[in-house]
Design brief:
Blueprint: E1 7-15, H1 20-36, E2 41-48, E3 67-73, H2 82-89, H3 93-99, E4 102-111, H4 121-124
Antiparallel strand pairs: 1-3, 1-4, 2-3
C-alpha cells in the first residue's frame, strides 16, 4: 500500500440540531479513534461548515452538509482489509443509534491525481 496514491475518505453528514451533542461526542470519542486503530488509516479530522463563500460568476451552490470528516488512508485496499471489514460489520450500539439519526450521509473515497505546491514555477505566472 505504500506505493498507492494518496487516498482520502470524505464523509459529509447532517443531523438534527437537538441530536448534535451526542453525534459530536460519538464522532470524537468512538468513531474517529476506532478508524485510526485500523492499520492503514493515517489521520482524521472533523470539520463544521463555515460561513458562505463569496458567490458570483456562476459559483452559486446549494448549502453543503453541516459536518465533514476527512480520513487519510494508505490506499483503496485499506477499505477491503480484514480489520476494516470487521469494524464495519460489527458496529457498536452507539454507532447504530447515531447512524439511524442522520438526515444525510455522503461517503466517498478520493484518490489524488495531481498536486501542486505554491513554490512550483508554474504558479509564478499568476502572482
Amino acid at each position: 500500500m505504500a506505493d498507492d496514491p494518496r487516498t482520502l475518505l470524505v464523509v459529509q453528514t447532517d443531523i438534527a440540531p437537538e441530536l448534535e451533542a451526542d453525534y459530536l461526542r460519538w464522532y470524537d470519542e468512538e468513531h474517529i479513534p476506532q478508524r485510526l486503530a485500523v492499520p492503514g488509516f493515517r489521520g482524521a479530522a472533523r470539520f463544521e461548515v463555515g460561513p458562505p463563500a463569496p458567490t458570483g460568476a456562476g459559483l452559486e451552490v446549494a448549502a453543503p452538509p453541516r459536518h465533514l470528516a476527512i480520513y487519510e488512508v494508505d490506499g483503496l485496499p485499506v477499505f477491503n482489509s480484514e480489520p476494516y471489514r470487521r469494524l464495519i460489520a460489527n458496529p457498536s450500539e452507539w454507532t447504530r443509534r447515531v447512524r439511524s439519526t442522520f438526515s444525510l450521509r455522503l461517503r466517498s473515497p478520493y484518490v489524488e491525481r495531481f498536486r501542486l505546491a505554491p513554490d512550483d514555477p508554474r504558479v509564478d505566472a499568476f502572482r
